[in-house]
Design brief:
One of its GO terms (biological process) is regulation of lipid biosynthetic process. By secondary structure, the chain is mainly α. Among the domains are: about 170 residues, Tetratricopeptide repeat domain (Serine Threonine Protein Phosphatase 5, Tetratricopeptide repeat); about 35 residues. It contains 20 helices and 3 strands. It has a 3-stranded antiparallel β-sheet with strand order 2-1-3, with no helix packed on it. The structure holds zinc ion (ZN). The site of zinc ion has 9 residues, from loops.
């Protein structure tokens, strides 16, 4: 597909270049000689390229066409577009040579020169040569007076620093831009969470807490910062404060209720407060009837009032909101109930059903990126596919929550 795009760009560019060149040649001839029958044609290389194309050798065709296409003010943007296409199809080294070749031309305007430098920085990033990309971007930021180019350079620099996990440097670059570009608040909040994680691993909890509070100032909907703050409170034995923190999560992002449940259970259990936990779970169920919350409630009732009460509760909840996970848990409860009633082995039909629900649950997607659809078993705060922060959430529906 990209080969077709590349070849189309090249063929159109060559045709335009040829047309312009032919017109200029005609004008020159009018000035110096009387009109004569023109026998000017396309260069030999053009036909060699076409031959490669007809022989289904697109790479050779592309290389030959590039050689035909001379760099001048009419074709410089075609060369830039070609470089982009090479990079997009994974041949960033070719993109580098095209863009470096362009930069060697002395007649380029400042604007075009900066555009090419940005492209070259992207090529180096694609090749993983981050130090060269960083040097180019810093030079551009020092010398460019064009606001659009400066913003593009800062965005690339931030992307690069993020890939290098240089969170503080990324924050330093983005901080002055947050007012103008509020959508950068979310990634900045996550970088602060990353810094907090580093502080926690170095046993510097007060600093971690400071980063997390700042993250919430930048993005009040940052579930990750709230969750981490609650965990810090629990580490210090402040379970009631942890519960208070966790109570904010449904308001930040309702789909993350299942994400917070293990921490919520831990806080209430360490506080010896079953009644509070049960009331909290009922409150969460009123907000959203997620399977994880129903199962958490079932586990509490099972432990406290016995398996039959749990079966009654789960059966009733599942009638209202059916789900695969809930059904699987209900089958577990039935098997447990039969074991307790003294049956030597559980009903084979139950075991068969359990076999099916286990297999279905094994293949389900638990988390999905809301932006690009990337599926992931565990929750990841940055999508590995589209690289957006905070877009992966628990899957809701019969197979999910
Ligand atoms: Zn994504």
């Amino acid at each position: 597909m990209l080969d077709v795009a590349l070849l189309s760009v090249l063929l159109v560019a060559i045709a335009i270049g040829y047309g312009l060149g032919y017109r200029q040649a005609l004008r020159r001839r009018h000035r110096t000689h009387p009109p004569a029958a023109s026998s000017q044609g396309l260069s030999r290389d053009y036909f060699v390229g076409l031959n490669y194309l007809l022989n289904e050798q697109p790479d050779e065709a592309i290389n030959t066409f590039i050689n035909v296409l001379a760099v001048n003010s009419d074709t410089v943007h075609t060369h830039i577009a070609l470089g982009k296409l090479f990079r997009a199809r994974g041949e960033a080294d070719k993109a580098v040579s095209i863009h470096q070749n362009l930069l060697a031309r002395p007649a380029l305007s400042q604007h075009t020169n900066e555009q090419i430098q940005l492209e070259l920085a992207r090529d180096f990033m694609a090749l993983g040569v981050h130090d060269r990309a960083q040097r180019l971007l810093n030079t551009l930021l020092e010398h460019s007076g064009d606001d659009d180019h400066r913003y593009a350079a800062k965005q690339l620099l931030v992307d690069l620093l993020e890939r290098e996990k240089a969170w503080q440097q990324a924050l330093d670059v983005i901080q002055p831009l947050l007012k103008q570009y509020p959508k950068m608040r979310r990634p900045a909040a996550h970088w602060l969470c990353e810094l907090a994680l580093e502080e926690i691993s170095e046993a510097s909890r007060p600093l971690a807490k400071k980063h997390l509070k700042k993250a919430l100032q930048l993005d009040e909907k940052c579930v990750r910062a709230t969750l981490m703050l609650a965990e810090l409170e629990m580490d210090n034995g402040h379970y009631a404060r942890a519960i208070e923190r966790l109570d904010n999560i449904p308001g930040q992002e309702i789909a993350h209720i299942p994400t917070m449940l293990p921490a919520l259970k831990h806080a209430y259990m360490r506080n010896n407060d079953d009644t509070g936990y049960e009331a909290h779970l009922y409150r969460l169920l009123e907000l959203a009837p997620y399977t994880s919350t129903i199962i958490a409630l079932g586990q509490l009732v099972h432990q406290r009032d016995g398996v039959d009460k749990a079966i009654e509760l789960i059966g009733e909840r599942l009638r209202a909101v059916p789900s695969l996970g809930g059904l699987d848990y209900l089958i577990d409860l039935y098997i447990e109930s039969q074991r307790l009633s003294g049956k030597p082995s559980p009903d084979t039909r139950l075991l068969l059903l359990k076999h099916h629900t286990d297999a279905l649950l094994l293949n389900r997607t638990r988390h999905r990126c809301q932006r690009c659809g990337f599926a992931s078993d565990a929750l990841q705060w940055q999508c590995p596919s589209c690289r957006f922060w905070g877009t992966i959430k628990p899957v809701i529906g019969v197979e999910g929550e």
